[in-house]
Structures are given as structure tokens and as C-alpha cells.
Amino acid sequence: DGSEIADIENYVKADYKKPDPEMFGAAEGKNVVMVSMESIQNFVLDNDVEGNEITPFLNQLKEDKDTYYFPNFYHQTGQGKTSDSEFLLANSMYPLPSGAVFFTHSQNEYQASPETLKEKGYFTANLHANNKSFWNRDIMYNSLGYEKFYSLADYEVTPEQSIGWGLKDEFFFQQSVDHMKEMPEPYYTKFITLTNHFPFSLEKEDEFIPEWNSNDGTVNRYFTTVRYMDESVKMFFDSLKNEGMYEDTMFVLYGDHYGISENHNKAMGEYLGKEITPFESTQLQQVPLYIHIPGDGNGKVMDTVGGQVDLRPTIMHLLGIETKNSIQFGSDLFSKERQDFAVLRDGSFITKDHVYTDNTCYDKETGEPTEKSSCESFKEKAEKELDYSDRIIYGDLLRFFDPKTGQIKTDK
Ligand code: GP9
Ligand code: MN
Asked: How far apart are CA 138 and CA 124, in angstroms?
């Protein structure tokens, strides 16, 4: 009953961080375009393979006066991969320690952002050129309150325009722009890319840079497909500019999860010129986050440590929607009250000065193990948040919470 959620509600309320009044409503009334960039990790940014830049568009976008760029942002996904990142984004809750919540708990009560935004007059949609039932998306998107899912059936997919898992990103974006033209405004949309997916296949004619030449073919190809995705996102921006659909939109670009697993530590060590220790492995879970608001002009590098769980309150506040009545584990990345903190799904966590993983507390500056006590207070927070989030999902506890009033329902 409602008593199960009382402790959780108390914790969440106490942990709420007020929005920065300068940023609250900074994108009010605008359309929202989120791009889930498949398998991209931070280490490719501002980097090259044998002199060839890997992400020229994303590198330049960081410098844009309208871009807030977050270098200390982490994915928090588990076995549900892309679907876990979608879950984090919509709910500001953690995915499950094993399995994919999109499959195991699609019938739960959720109080997800698409539902809230629909009430505020937004048209909410997902766009992804894969079979609609992949990751159980067709079912789960209904539970999360999305109005429309443009899936495989809504795209024209020819063999020439496909590689690996399906439609190449450039054609996906091209056809998606046509779908966008039909959408009522303001719209809140998520575009899920695919070409930079393991095993990172690409035809020669689509290569902007050659593969790397280590003994690890996966890592070699990864750079080339990342470069391809970077170009596709650039083309997407260009066509929105050409169509006059750019100015009135807020863009949120983020990485869904890692692309290179620990099985490739040898080649990664060779590429990065350092041994991939558990500390480095944890830091490699950093994924890009860009918030780009055309015309804003105040863009900067935001050093705060955060993760995908923080996206929902951040985006809601930018749209001028308060979240203090919500059950959420993240907090606004622009809040002046924020604590630097990200917990990964395996219990590892990152703070301003430390990285905790494998039962070891590391000094973030040196990467050397340090006294466990330095990590202790955050360890409790990390465990508590994951546990509370799991309990909500396993017990379907949002049934007992009224997000309108922020109160527990007593009559059940
Ligand atoms: C599949 C795509 C990739 O539709 O989202 O899924 P992933 O394997 O990365 O979870
Ligand atoms: Mn993915």
C-alpha cells in the first residue's frame, strides 16, 4: 500500500534541487528534439585516428555560443541498453540491476515526462527505424505516455539505404524531417540512431575516415561509424536549418551507453596510451551531453558530474515546468544547489573528487586508490537510490502516488 512509498517520497523531496532562475523556462514553448546517439563515448570527442578527426561536427558544436556542453556526464544503463537509457530519460528512475525494465515492467504505472508534456499541450513522439516491438517499445511507449511512434513501417527502407541493423542514419534523419513537418507544435521528440551499433559495419563509400589498424577489428571500425554518425547529425541540423525548423527548437544530444566493452581493453589501452584500470573503465562510461538552444547565446561548459537520470528534471525546468512534486532520482543539471554525483547501474559512482568502483575508492585526479572513508557518505546515497528505484519498479509503487498534488494516495 501507500506506506511502502512514504520513505522514498521523503528521500526524494529532501533531495530536490531548486532550478537556477536564469535557466528555468529558458526553452519555454520551444519544440524539443532529442537525439539518442548510439554507442558513443566521450573518448572520441576532440580526438583523432592517425590524424583524422572523429567527431568534427560534435567538436564544433561544443564551441557554439548556444550550446551547454557537459563533459562529466555518464550513462547509467544496464542490460536493457538503449531501452534503459530511454527509461532513465522519461522517468528519472534507474533501470533494473538485471534484465530490461522495458520488457519486465511495461504494465506498471509510470508518471513519465511524455505524459506530463502531453497535458501541457506538447505532441510527443519517438522516431526509430526499427521494428516497433524491438525492446517491447510499442507497449512501453504507451505506458510512458508517448502519442506516436514512427517505427520501421513509417520509413522507406531499401537495401541500398541500409547497413547492419537497418536504415542508415542519414536516410533515417532525412525521412524523419518529413515526419516532423506533419507534427503539431510544440513537439517533444526523440530520434534514435542506429548505424553506430556493434558490430559497426559500414560500406567503403560511406566512410569519411579509414578504419584504425590495431588487432581489434571492433575498435578499428568503431571510429569509422562514429564519424559517420557525426556527419548524419550534422546533416540533420543542416536540413532543419534549411526548412526553417531549427530556430524554435531545443536540442538535447546524448550518448545512450558505451560502444566498446571491457573485452576490448587491450586495444583501448593502445589507443589511449594508458592501461585500462577499473578506474579508467569507469571514466570511460562518460557519454556526450549537449543542450543546444538556438539564440540563447549564453552557452558554456558545465562541469557538474551527472547522469542520464538527471535529464528529465533538467529538461522540464528548461521548459518552465516545475518538478518538485515528482518522484525522481535525478536533479536539474543547472541547479546551483546540485551535488556532483552519478551512480552507475553496477553501483560504481562518481563524485567531484572521487570514483568508486570494485570496492575501491579512487582519487579522481590521480586515478590512484585512496582511503575508503572518502567515498563512504556517497556510497550510502548510491545504494539507497538504486534500492529505492528498484523497489518502485518491483512493487509498481507509483500507483500509490499522485503527481498532481505530490501526495501519497491514502484511499487504496
Ligand atoms: C535497437 C537499437 C539498438 O532498436 O535501439 O539497441 P541496443 O542494442 O543498443 O540496446
Ligand atoms: Mn544502443
From this structure: 14
Is any ligand 1 atom within 6 A of the Cβ of residue 197?
Answer: yes
The mean pLDDT value for 391-407 works out to 96
The single-letter code of the amino acid at 71 is P
Q: What average pLDDT does this structure show over 293-320?
A: 98
User: What is the ipTM metric for this complex?
Assistant: 0.99
pLDDT grade for 411, boundaries at 50, 70 and 90: low
Is the pTM higher than 0.95? The answer reads yes
Q: What gap in Å lies between CA 264 and CA 287, rounded to an integer?
A: 18
For CA atoms 365, 366, 369, 374, give the dihedral sign.
negative
Cα-to-centroid distance, 56 and ligand 2 (Å): 22
CB 81 near ligand 1, within 6 Å: yes
User: Is 82 a residue of the active site?
Assistant: yes
Residue nearest to atom 3 of ligand 1 (CA): 82
In the DSSP assignment, the letter for residue 372 is T
253 CB under 6 A from ligand 1? no
Give residue 2's pLDDT.
79
Average pLDDT over residues 239-251: 98
For 108-120, how does the pLDDT look when each residue is reduced to its tens digit (9 = 90+)? Answer: 999 999 999 999 9
Q: Is residue 314 within 6 Å of ligand 1 at its C-beta?
A: no
Residues 6+ apart with CB under 8 A from 158: none
Coil, helix or strand at residue 68: strand
Q: Which residue among 55, 67, 77, 82 is the active-site one?
A: 82
Q: Which three cell numbers stand for residue 253?
A: 544530444
> How far, in Å, is the centroid of ligand 1 from the Cα of 134?
8
